[in-house]
From TrEMBL:
GO terms for molecular function: 2-dehydropantoate 2-reductase activity; NADP binding. Belongs to the ketopantoate reductase family. The lineage of its organism: Bacteria, Pseudomonadati, Pseudomonadota, Gammaproteobacteria, Alteromonadales. InterPro entries: 6-PGluconate_DH-like_C_sf, 6PGD_dom2, ApbA, Ketopantoate_reductase, KPA_reductase, KPR_N, NAD(P)-bd_dom_sf. This is 2-dehydropantoate 2-reductase. Coiled coil: none annotated. The keyword Oxidoreductase applies. Pathway: Cofactor biosynthesis; (R)-pantothenate biosynthesis; (R)-pantoate from 3-methyl-2-oxobutanoate: step 2/2.
Length: 308
């Protein structure tokens, strides 16, 4: 396995970097220099320092393998920044919430460049610019997107699985992406708007909204040819709520901090697809509007609080 480049310094990207560094040379590609030379990985109040190489994202060095774990809305910009550096057979691994990036990135690749998607239920957040807190272990899934990736997927999986725990190679990444999208549709916006932890969404007062949000996404998955069962995905949604009961969703944290969220790649993706297939998605549309309203209100609130 060649050196592995990771775009940005987000929590999940740093978590991948921490796992990969004992096995590979890891480089973080950033747009600005850091005031520190290492990061701190925290788990159960125990700290381990790790120090990946840092380089400018516009460096001229070739990239053989890159993970892009940025927010969904930043994926295209991040890819375009490193596109001139990609080798002829480069491995490109996308990893984020929501959908829509594959359609943007796949047409930009040469025939021999390999596109993968990495989903994960690992949970982490950054307590500071230097400290990443690992709040929950979970399963990760790697899936090949294009033909070049499928031809080399066994080798890529073997190399990554020695470093990333509980990693699985899947044949149908589209189904897993839809499954995760439906989970995100149900959890992220509601937890952000109501500023609650994931586990609180199991309360009966949220049941109707959860059901309608899931059902709208489920209908569109069927239209897309994804084989999925409503009762199974609903069970999974509530299982994730319970398994991550003490965690805040990423959208919850983004809205609380006044940062851009991935709502356009989650509920926005459902709304856009619904318009394409002439299927009504009023509940996802409502979440899209509310999150955008809250984001704008957060920016304009003089005391930094959410406006209702």
């Amino acid at each position: 396995m060649p050196d592995i480049h990771i775009i940005g310094k987000g929590a999940i990207g740093l978590l991948y970097g921490y796992y990969l560094q004992p096995h590979y040379a890891v480089t973080l590609c950033l747009r600005a220099q850091l005031p520190h030379s290492h990061f701190n990985y925290w788990r159960n109040d125990e700290c381990t320092a790790f120090a990946p190489k840092i380089e400018d994202i516009e460096s001229q060095d070739k990239i053989e393998c890159v993970i892009i774990p940025t927010k969904a809305f930043s994926v295209l910009d991040a890819f375009n920044a490193i596109k001139p550096r990609l080798s002829k057979h480069a491995v490109i691994i996308l990893s984020h919430n929501g959908m829509g990036s594959i359609e943007l990135i796949a047409p930009l690749l040469s025939g021999q460049q390999q596109l993968f998607f990495l989903t994960t239920t690992q949970a982490a957040y950054k307590r500071s610019q230097q400290d990443v807190i690992h709040t929950g272990h979970g399963m990760s899934n790697l899936g090949a997107v294009n033909a070049a990736a499928k031809a080399n997927q066994a080798k890529v999986f073997k190399n990554l699985s020695v470093a990333i725990p509980d990693l699985h190679l899947v044949d149908n990444i589209e189904q897993l992406l839809w499954q995760k999208l439906i989970i995100n549709v149900a959890i992220n916006p509601l937890s952000a708007i109501n500023q609650v932890k994931n586990g609180q969404l199991t309360q009966p007062k949220y049941a109707s909204q959860v059901l309608h949000l899931v059902h709208e996404a489920y209908q569109l998955a069927l239209v897309q040819g994804v084989k999925i069962e409503l009762h199974k995905v609903l069970y999974l949604v509530y299982k994730v709520m319970r398994d991550t009961a003490d965690n805040f969703s990423s959208m919850n944290r983004d809205i609380a901090a006044g940062q851009p969220s991935e709502i356009e790649a989650i509920c926005g993706y459902i709304v856009q697809l619904g318009q394409q297939y002439n299927l009504a998605t009023p509940y996802n549309m409502d979440m899209l509007k509310q999150i955008n309203h809250y984001a704008n209100a957060k920016k304009s609130a003089p005391d930094g609080t959410l406006l209702h």
